[in-house]
Amino acid sequence: MYGPLIQGKLVSLRPPRPEDAEVMITWFEDMEVTRLLFVRNPPSIDMEREWLDKMARDPNEVIWVVEHEARPVGTTAIHAINWRDGHGTTGTVLGEKAVWGKGLGREVMQLRARYAFTQLPLRKLKSGYLDGNDASGRAQAAAGYREVGRYRKDHFIGGKYVDLILTEVLREDWEKANPV
Ligand SMILES: CC(C)(COP(=O)(O)OP(=O)(O)OC[C@H]1O[C@@H](n2cnc3c(N)ncnc32)[C@H](O)[C@@H]1OP(=O)(O)O)[C@@H](O)C(=O)NCCC(=O)NCCS
Questions:
Q1: pLDDT digits over 98-127, tens only?
Q2: From the centroid of its chain, how far is CA 143?
Q3: Which ligand 1 atom minimizes the distance to the CA of 33?
Q4: How far apart are the first and last CA of the chain?
Q5: How far is ligand 1, taken at its centre, from the CA of residue 133, in Å?
Q6: Over the stretch 45-103, which tens digit does the pLDDT of each residue have?
Q7: N or C: which terminus of the chain carries fewer CB neighbours within 10 A?
Q8: How far is the centre of ligand 1, averaged over its atoms, from the C-alpha of 57 (Å)?
Q9: Ligand 1 site: residues with CB under 6 angstroms?
Q10: What is d(CA 141, CA 146) in angstroms, rounded to the nearest whole number?
């Protein structure tokens, strides 16, 4: 599924459009962007279009394009939703380095958590980040995620193996921090 339009202060989350595939593939050309991601090689334009189409049809995925100043700068998603147990796994890529460090990631994760807990019947969002990705860890923390464990020496990055830090946010904790 594509996620509906959600307007924030710095960003809007909107459903992807076919023409987004062209800018999206350029994000994965840059090793600074992919350094701490699981996707390490750029897809072809056909692969990206197929991925967008697959995501649109999959009832267990919700994906958005992140827009800032009226241009697409990244994507965010709730993947692999398990409706029975009420959880999904979130991920974000801001592919334009020029927008990093301005609070966009934090707002994206906050808007996404609000959607998951107020518009969907999810109980928990799971995520993670590779050790050293402080911006991701802090943005997740600002949206209520906390560390619940780590897989040690899990990914080969820059010549060494780094830990994958596992995180989650529970609906009840999010509700306490975000009273209506
Ligand atoms: C990780 C990412 C989503 C963070 O988004 P961002 O817009 O750059 O981050 P924000 O500006 O919202 O900052 C979030 C927090 O991280 C901190 N931060 C930002 N850049 C930082 C950096 N380079 N080093 C350390 N902390 C940093 C901010 O101070 C803020 O902390 P605070 O909430 O305690 O004040 C974004 O940088 C990105 O997409 N990077 C490439 C792909 C990636 O790594 N995705 C995540 C995979 S788990």
A1: 999 999 999 999 999 999 999 999 999 999
A2: 12
A3: 41
A4: 27
A5: 8
A6: 999 999 999 999 999 999 999 999 999 999 999 999 999 999 999 999 999 999 999 99
A7: C
A8: 30
A9: 33, 36-37, 74, 92-94, 100-106, 129, 133-136, 138-139, 142
A10: 6
